[in-house]
Amino acid sequence: MTLAADEIKACCATAYSSAAARFLLGDCFHPGGAALTSLLARALEVGPGDVVVDVACGPGTSALQLARETGCEVIGVDLAPPAASDDPRVRFVRGDAESLPLEDASVDGALCECALCTFPDKAAAASELARVLRPGARLALSDLTARPEELPASLASLTAWVACVADARPLEQIAAFLEQAGLVVEHTERHDDALVELVERVEARLKVAKLLTPDAAAGAGELLREVRDALDAGVLGYGVVVARRP
Q1: Which domains does the chain have, with CATH numbers?
Q2: pLDDT of residue 219
Q3: Residue 26 confidence (pLDDT)
Q4: Which contacts qualify for 20-25: CB closer than 8 Å, 24 or more apart?
């Protein structure tokens, strides 16, 4: 199945700015929640006076957390309409991860959580992340991982793409995208348990949704069952990559 890049981007932006996404996923739209964001924030080694870009920032929860925990300034970039910020250190702009609205070597760090898997052109996004980093600055990235050749055809749909599954890659390949963009990968680590916890939380909330809107929740429930099967089989997981611009 061939999906158009513009269609994928538009559907992702619409889906993740919806009330349904917030209901199912909570304030943090990624596995690991605030605890994993804190780990990534520490890996960036930033502080007051530094500027960090949060790419595909969604509702802005992590951008605000990053500013609060490190004292840095944060620019949240997302395809959806900009979120509002009540923190003067955080501002949100509308933009595409494959063509970031930032100058070359303009930020002291970059954060990207559970989003590379949704970008149609992952090499272009990796190049953009590398381009905007100042020499010595770090990228902290977390993402869904997969063995694509083992995913069932049903998990290659547009809905599965929006759900971060259809084009997820192995952790080693994610690191390779960053290396090919000129970054030095400092370390990688797996956080599969974080994905298990997120799936369990969504399963619980879907049970509530089925009581309220059974027809609308039915399709999501089937997709989630397939994701759970792939997760149990070790085909899906979650990982972190920290890389530095030389």
Answers
A1: 5-244 (3.40.50.150)
A2: 54
A3: 55
A4: 22/59, 23/205, 23/209, 24/202, 24/205, 24/206, 24/209, 24/220, 25/198, 25/201, 25/202
